[in-house]
Amino acid sequence: MIDRGTWTAALGRLQLELSNGHFAAWLQQSTFVEGGISSLVVGLPNAFARETVDRSFRPIVKEVVDRIADRDVDVTFVIHAEDVSNSPSRTDVSEPPPSVGHAPAASTARRSAPLQPRYTFDNFVAGEGTSLAYAAAKRACESPGGSYNPLFIYGSVGLGKTHLLKAVGHEINQRVPSCAVRFVTSEDFTHELVTAIRAGSTSAFRSRYRSIDVLLMDDVQFIAGRESTQQEVFHTFDTLYSAGKQIVLTSDRSPQTIRPLSDRLTTRFACGLVADIQPPDFETRLAILRCKALAVGADVPLPVIEFLASSVTDNVRDLEGALTRVIFFAQCNKLQLSVDVAQQALHRTGYRAAPRALTLRSITNAVCEHFSLTTEEIAGRSRASRLTRPRHIAMYLMREDTNHSLPAIGAELGGRDHTTILYGVRKISRQLSGDPTLQLAIESIRALNSLTKPYTG
Ligand code: ADP
Ligand code: MG
């Protein structure tokens, strides 16, 4: 029987498969409406969402549901507005999701095309700096809730923390498809909590979090100084931990240096295995670049790979950005890729590689630079089309590439309302798949953003 629990598990899985922006824009608000032996009806808040999900996400939703149910499921999307507080929760499950192996149509589910997720152990290149975190994450998947519980991974930005965290989710789902895995950033957790408090639905919020099997919480450093969030994290942690559920946390700093944080949380975060990750060494950077070039199907000569690996040293995200920029530069100018061309791509325009965190401001600057606009123009009120498109792209990138909330993004873009931001994010998400020019613009801005201008004065 396909039930609420199946859909909850599917949502957890989809959150790992899709980008944060796509998931938040299209599936977060979905609800379980009805299930049968091999049918599932999912509700979406309006006609537009229903059409979009049906058109763009049906294959992946079906793939995930088929796997969890281990049979060929007929998935239907309908318009069905439901209060957020009633969204699916494992506590409502009348019976557990079907386990692997009993279903009559199991072979059909297995025959469907495999998922091609981005963040898996397979496409993570484990080097010296990440070997402990990598091994511990794998062990946590082999025996969830075992000795590496909680697993706390910390390290500076762009070193693969989120990648490893999502890889854990994939791997566990792969092993036990019915396992309810929940990936959440501590910021989103806070927002959900605040919304639940306002709506008077904290008990639904609690049961949602306390009835899962694996909690993956990204960037926990953001709960520093937030008392009610800390309290909620503490109780969620204790409930899951004492029930033997696996918890994996990431942060940009160690438990002891997250401040202010209540002592009881510091102790709990550190009571399992704490693994730090360090920037990759030269050999690992080479391996990562080869892996990324292969993933985008680009034939990048070894000398170019070596040049990039020696130019960008501290941050894998920047390394990826530099590679993308070089590939695009060569393609746009119809040049054969060589060290000379790579050098031009990185230096001729006055840029050099530099590690830095992605901030809202850096995205604003990169978008302005790409479209030759001023920050006043992009944050201003004018609705001229030469401004609205870049503005929407900025909203999309800020939502996709940072953990900032919609109101924070609104504030960065001239004090806009969060619904305006959501509109822009959705608009770009919708257009992206069918618009190569837009894809190119977004990738070039991302590449631009991973490189900073040298000091000139
Ligand atoms: P963090 O969460 O630590 O800021 P991410 O996990 O978002 O970093 O990683 C940034 C980018 O670098 C992602 O695209 C990720 O896939 C990639 N990446 C980081 N480390 C590795 C690695 N060791 N192998 C392959 N890709 C990596
Ligand atoms: Mg991260």
Would you mind describing this structure in some detail?
The chain is α/β, with parallel strands linked by helices and 457 residues long. It has 20 helices and 10 strands. It has helices at residues 4-17, 20-27, 47-69, 106-111, 131-142, 161-175, 186-199, 202-210, 227-242, 263-269, 282-295, 302-311, 316-332, 339-348, 360-371, 375-379, 385-401, 406-412, 418-432, 436-449; strands spanning 31-35, 39-44, 74-79, 151-154, 181-185, 214-218, 246-251, 273-276, 352-353, 451-452. The strands form 3 sheets. Strands 5-6-7-4-8 form a 5-stranded parallel sheet, sandwiched between helices. A 3-stranded mixed sheet has the order 1-2-3, with helices on one face. Helix 9 links the parallel strand 6 and strand 7 (246-251). The protein is globular. The protein starts with a helix and ends in a 5-residue tail after the last strand. The structure holds adenosine-5'-diphosphate and magnesium ion.
Spell out the key features of this protein.
disordered C terminus, binds adenosine-5'-diphosphate, binds magnesium ion, five-stranded parallel β-sheet, globular, 457 residues, alpha/beta, 10% strand, three-stranded mixed β-sheet
